[in-house]
Amino acid sequence: MDKCEEMRARFDRFYDGQLVDSGTMQIQAISNLQMKNIRKYFVPGIYSFDIVGFLDTGLIKAGKEGYLFTVDGVYYKEFLEKPGRFRYCDVANTEIILPKPKDNESTLQIKFKDGRWVRLIGYSLYKTAAKRLLDGLCEIAARYPDEDDDEDE
Q: What is the rounded CA–CA span in Å between residue 116 and residue 146?
């Protein structure tokens, strides 16, 4: 099993409503419209073989907002926010901060090795499952360090 297959298997464990109410897309379920918008709003020129999975959080599920998990990192676009990106190899730790009774109202903070951090606050995302998924993908990426370094060259 290679890195992408391992990551897709991990993503698939969270497929059934654990990350968002609806809109979790395994790679084979991403529509042509969603792929077009993923390339427009997230990553121009991305190939489907680099995608692990997609959480479409947009109202009409057209691929304009959400969380795109790739073999190297995560691209995200939350409602009314600018898009962002981070690589798995840069993540130092993840934690749920400001916990709320409803998990989707909590905040997932991702700290990076260089001291930066990002907070995912979108109400569509269940933070506890997202933390577990992200921790697992970072663990898998750590076992394939040479592949992440190729992007920097």
A: 23
Look up the pTM and report it: 0.89
The token pair that represents 79 in the structure block: 């409602």
Q: Check: CB of residue 100 under 8 Å from CB of residue 144.
A: no
Q: What is the dihedral of CA 148, 77, 121, 70, to 10 degrees?
A: -30
What is the reported pLDDT for 109?
Answer: 97
Handedness of CA 47, 75, 149, 10 (dihedral sign): negative
Half-sphere exposure for 114 (CA within 13 Å, toward CB): 6
Judge whether residue 30 has pLDDT over 50: yes
Q: Is the pLDDT of residue 129 over 90?
A: yes
Residue 81 predicted with pLDDT over 50: yes
| Residues constituting the chain | 153
Task: Name the strands in the sheet holding 117-120, side by side, starting at the edge strand that comes first in the sequence.
Answer: 91-97, 107-112, 117-120
C-alpha span between 54 and 62 (Å, rounded): 11
